[in-house]
């Protein structure tokens, strides 16, 4: 390094970009000037793909002779790769492209030294967006109204990596109704459709990662790094509940069911098949004390149990659900109304009067 201080006290520092300076004695023999060099990009690729590897071959010569053991550099948009030339003056440099897709200059450089002058070569180079694949599973599904659908979309790049944080646009439609929503994928790259607020019917489910989205007005989306993709033609059936009331041993309104307080009673009903056990709205079933109505007919419940707590089960043989409702001994001498609300928002009632 060279450092100097001027008369005004200002200090200057020169580092020769890390190559250092040499001190030559005053009477030393004059060295020959550095020889000219030629650095060539040999048949360089004209384009590459984001997050994919591109390889360049460089040839360094001086006076037509190979220069071995020299450091050469390749730069694309500020991303660099370095290498040492072999005995043939060649170096192979590869870049896993992380620069934003666009047009660049691939610049090869030899800095030079005391014996050789620097040289460079430049070639136009385009970084393209990576291709993507959009998958959605399952291919078809059947759910009850307001029940979450099982559709999960995943966007993957050309190497099969899932892309988290990207948006997937779902369109659920038939000839009468359309529902569209955009869902951001989680850290695992999963975008879940969830519930679809549409009436019962058969629908087509289409999923898009950018591109032209056929909504009204048409929406065109793009990503700075990835090409668009889509998955079309999935099938969704939304079914209505087929609730027809409660079965024995209880009776539907206006009848008042009479039973001993503290016992458990099975509330049996059908939903047209097995809909799973997550059938109730949050907080249901529930009950509240009501005014006893002596004008309504009373029917004694003949089947009760001593179960210690309430529970829900489904019998695939009979196709019936059974909610075993546990009552309290303190309810003796009162009347209560049971409210059963399903996740589709429909609510049904049963009336009870309790004896000791």
Compute the average pLDDT: 93
> Segments where pLDDT lies below 50 for 5+ residues?
none
- Give me the CATH architecture of the largest domain, please: Sandwich
The ordered H/E elements are EEEEEEEEEEEEEEEEEEEEEEEEEEEEE
Tally of separate domains: 3
What is the CATH superfamily classification of the largest domain?
Answer: Immunoglobulins
Biggest sheet overview: 5 strands, mixed
CATH-derived topology of the largest domain? Immunoglobulin-like
Helix content class: under 10%
Overall spatial form:
elongated
> What top-tier CATH class of the largest domain fits best?
Mainly Beta
Plain-language structure description:
The chain is built from no helices and 29 strands. It has strands at residues 2-5, 11-14, 38-41, 47-49, 53-62, 65-66, 71-76, 79-84, 90-96, 102-110, 119-128, 132-137, 140-144, 149-157, 167-173, 178-184, 190-194, 201-209, 211-213, 219-221, 229-239, 256-260, 264-269, 286-290, 298-300, 311-315, 320-326, 335-341, 347-355. A hairpin with an 8-residue loop joins strand 10 and strand 11. The model has no long low-confidence stretch (mean pLDDT 93).
Short description:
This protein has strands at residues 2-5, 11-14, 38-41, 47-49, 53-62, 65-66, 71-76, 79-84, 90-96, 102-110, 119-128, 132-137, 140-144, 149-157, 167-173, 178-184, 190-194, 201-209, 211-213, 219-221, 229-239, 256-260, 264-269, 286-290, 298-300, 311-315, 320-326, 335-341, 347-355. It has 356 residues and is an all-beta fold. The chain has three domains: 28-128, Immunoglobulins (Immunoglobulin-like, Sandwich); 132-239, Immunoglobulin-like, CATH 2.60.40.10; 256-355, Immunoglobulin-like (Sandwich).
